[in-house]
Amino acid sequence: MHFKELNLIPPVIKAINKAGYEKPTEIQYQSIPHILKGNDIIGCAQTGTGKTASFAIPILQLLQQNSSAQKNIRTLVLTPTRELAIQISENFKIYGAFLPLTHTAIYGGVPQNKQIAIINKGVDILIATPGRLLDLMSQGCVNISQIEILVLDEADRMLDMGFVNDVKKILKKVPEKRQTLFFSATMPPDIRKFAQTILNQPKEINVTPVSSTAQTVKQSVYFVEKDEKLNLLVTILEDQSIKRSLVFSRTKHGADKLVRKLVKAGISAAAIHGNKSQNARQKALDDFKKSSIRILIATDIAARGIDIDELPHVINYELPNVPETYVHRIGRTGRAGSSGVAVSFCDKDQKKDLHNIQKLIGFNMPVIPQN
Ligand SMILES: Nc1ncnc2c1ncn2[C@@H]1O[C@H](COP(=O)(O)OP(=O)(O)OP(=O)(O)O)[C@@H](O)[C@H]1O
């Protein structure tokens, strides 16, 4: 199967070729035709399998084919984190390289003037985190009353407690007649039910069992006492054959503390979490992406969607208490067919969390004995 068989227009095919993709992934192959037909979609596929292109490619094509003389926002993509908004915007840039369509990302933590100036020039596709979008809407700087396509990326996260009120407010301002697309690697049943109230006769595309982890990630767990965790972390990371590792911590404070301890042990590390300025967040991520730091300690703001080329290793210093979060965290490795390793630390207070995670992913992880 080639992208050509998906009835894509030449400028889109040209951009896909330039990106170096040989063939569509399963989720792309299954969702692109439905989206091109104008259907609503719930798309579930494992982490790192190209869900972004599954919506970005057909959206670009639809906007191009039904081109409008007006300069209004025609597609809105909602996404939970600022880093992800930037990344999705970069994806639209790649796939839309040979099309005249414009796009931009708006997100909090940075001044709004530049964002407003770009919107005022006219954009076809707006990628937004909900808070900044509502902010700019309330100031009259953004009008989403003409959108044709609405995307909820990481849909279950967008509709969980932290975001649901914001999303409901946004939904009141978009036209009822629209195409709505939901994408995520995880989709808990209650969220799926709620989704049905927003979508119109959606096609469900489940490429693999919902919430399953990518086969490309080798998972294991250490049972470790709380006061032994730091030593274990240092021992693991001293192994220089691990080129880079992303370490998840449950708290911002815990993340900072780990950075200090690792730096003291001679291991270069930086943290990314919600108490840092947006510039510091982006810098930590960029430094990690270009390998100027070897270890990035993150809270769950980096759990979803973030695509880091050749990231071989993820550590859960603590297990997350929401099992779906585990699936997203370890999905930062083993992307686009490459292989990855994910190790988790489990102390005696976290046995229940481990149980819930293993129930969700449908298997028990091998336990690594400590010597
Ligand atoms: N058809 C393809 N062939 C090769 N690589 C691809 C293809 N489609 C996407 N990719 C690459 O795969 C990587 C993962 O894609 P993407 O970030 O969209 O994954 P995802 O399914 O959204 O993951 P997550 O659930 O973690 O958000 C990206 O680096 C992207 O460039």
From TrEMBL:
Its EC number is 3.6.4.13. Keywords: ATP-binding, Cytoplasm, Helicase, Hydrolase, Nucleotide-binding. InterPro entries: DEAD/DEAH_box_helicase_dom, DEAD/DEAH_RhlB, DEAD_box_RNA_helicase, Helicase_ATP-bd, Helicase_C-like, P-loop_NTPase, RNA-helicase_DEAD-box_CS, RNA_helicase_DEAD_Q_motif. PROSITE patterns: DEAD_ATP_HELICASE, HELICASE_ATP_BIND_1, HELICASE_CTER, Q_MOTIF. One of its GO terms (molecular function) is hydrolase activity. It comes from the Bacteria. Transmembrane segments: none annotated. Belongs to the DEAD box helicase family. This is DEAD-box ATP-dependent RNA helicase RhpA. It comes from Paenimyroides marinum.
